[in-house]
Write the structure tokens for this entry.
Amino acid sequence: MFPGRVELTGMVDLATRTVPAVVLRPTTKSVDAALLLARTVTPEPMRPGWPEVLSMARSVLPHQRMLELDERLAHAAARPVIVPETIICDNGKAYISHNFRSACRMLGISLQPAHPETPTDKPHIERTLESVASLFAQFVSGYLVRSAEFRGTSPEQDPLWSLMELQDLLDERIVAGWQNRRHDGLRDPATPARAFTPNEKYAVLVEAAGYVPVALSAEDYIELLPAAWRAVNAYGVKINHRVYDDKLLRDFRGQPSGVTAKKNLWEIHYDPYDVSQIWVRNHWDPKAGWVTAFWKHLRTAPAPFGDLAWDHARRQLASEGKTPTEAEIAQAVEAMLCRAHQGPGDPAQPGRAGRHGRKASAKERRVVARTRATAPPAWPEPDPVAQPPVEAEAPGLLTALRVACPRTAAVPVGPGVRRI
């Protein structure tokens, strides 16, 4: 495990002070902001190990009546489902990106960026982030506090949580604590002496405003992913020096998409945390949906990884004066992930490198740590799709699946759909 800082992206509902979703990432990308929107309109499921008292059925929320409208609430945790009307955000790249704006348009949400360097435009989220620090972060091992003069002795040497464990702890803390904690900003004019909890305020307002479920299909999750425009060539689609192909693309090869505003290129959606597959929009028949295309060298990858590990390996090979091929980059990523997992080598023989020839550098360990932190799929698991056929022109690459690397060599799962 490589220690490092993480970024928190969250939302707070002004009417109820509910925190409908938070996302922890090593570095926030536009896809993480889009995931935040998806989580706000999706019920929070009960996690293994959570006590039953945290379920929506045991809370003050009108569970039975909402369950009649939304069956997804049957096993939901006691955190309300919020459908935003307007989002006020800062001018970070993740929030003013084309991908996040498109996600807001798809969900019918108005986006209003705040004035630059004006935190008073969004005081509620600023105060909520302070509350996260005082009510949660300060109790987490390795907390660095807000400045050096308040910091303890060597906090980086404390036992550290993995990013996924920390995400789960924060989600549980919000459901168990924040949503049931009385908030001074939630006072009814008729009873000013009483402060409501976010769940109590939501229960009152849902009686007046009602509840309308927003169900996101697999296609909707693909719409939330970043987009790029590419040509469908005879060999497939190339994105970031990787080639993707599928037999269902045969009718699109070398053909114009019909979108003249984009020079007749095809719209491609991809997950920056999972290089295994992309989705090509069928512009000729919009009702047909998406075509899933798999990476040509997918079977060489021993574990899921994203663009971060791929770009690092490509830059490293380029710095050695090489012009790396796609297969060479894939092999470099495989070697880097296994090298970092196996450690520095045999402790009985100092200086001895691991099986792949040398020790992992500090930068490599940081890249691998961030890759593993974002490897678990962030999107709901879709219907199973067939694994890509074996590439006949590269028989030797299949042996990479069977290297003695202690990670399961499986096709990463993304927000796919049943192929047309």
